[in-house]
Amino acid sequence: MKSLAELAAIREKMQNKVVLREGSSDMRVVVGMATCGIAAGARPVLNTFVEEVANSGLGDKVIVTQTGCIGICQFEPVVEIYESGKEKVTYVKMSPEKAKEVVEKHLKGGQVIEEYAIKNI
Questions:
Q1: Is 105 exposed, middle or buried (0-12, 13-18, 19+ CB in 10 A)?
Q2: C-alpha span between 10 and 101 (Å, rounded)
Q3: pLDDT given at position 25
Q4: How many CB atoms lie within 10 A of CB 45?
Q5: pLDDT at res. 4
Q6: Using alpha carbons only, how large is the chain's radius of gyration in Å?
Q7: What mean pLDDT is reported for the chain?
């Protein structure tokens, strides 16, 4: 790093990646990141949600966060989507590719992807 401009560029780049935050928003994406989730591949799923939400310009409408065990370990990686005034949607056996599709169809388009979802338990 040789200048303040470089530092500012690094800061801006990292802020775009840090969508993980607390607060209130229209939608909340919660990724199960307990040991079982991480072992099943939840970390790349979480990273994909963070990147895709930022790249889609949804950062002001969607919060991506993590939690511990959701309680359905056999279905990991598990992602829950909370939206104001609607029932939560629980997506199971997620992958980075599925996460991209959820961002595009559900978060942007408002369409639940039934084939990835499990009925609320």
A1: middle
A2: 28
A3: 64
A4: 27
A5: 80
A6: 15
A7: 87
| Contacts (Cβ under 8 Å, ≥6 apart) of 13 | none
Closest CA to 31 of 87, 86, 103: 103
In the DSSP assignment, the letter for residue 117 is E
- DSSP codes, 56-88: TT-TTTEEEEEES--S-GGG-S-EEEEETTS--
Q: Quick one: pLDDT band at residue 119, thresholds 50, 70, 90?
A: confident
Distance separating alpha carbons of residues 73 and 17, to the nearest angstrom = 27
| Whether the predicted model's global pTM rises above the 0.90 cut | no
What the block records as the tokens of 106 is: 């559900």
Q: How far is CA 86 from CA 26, 48, 59, 62, 112, in A?
A: 11, 24, 20, 15, 12
Token readout for 27 is 């939608």
d(CA 95, CA 113): 14
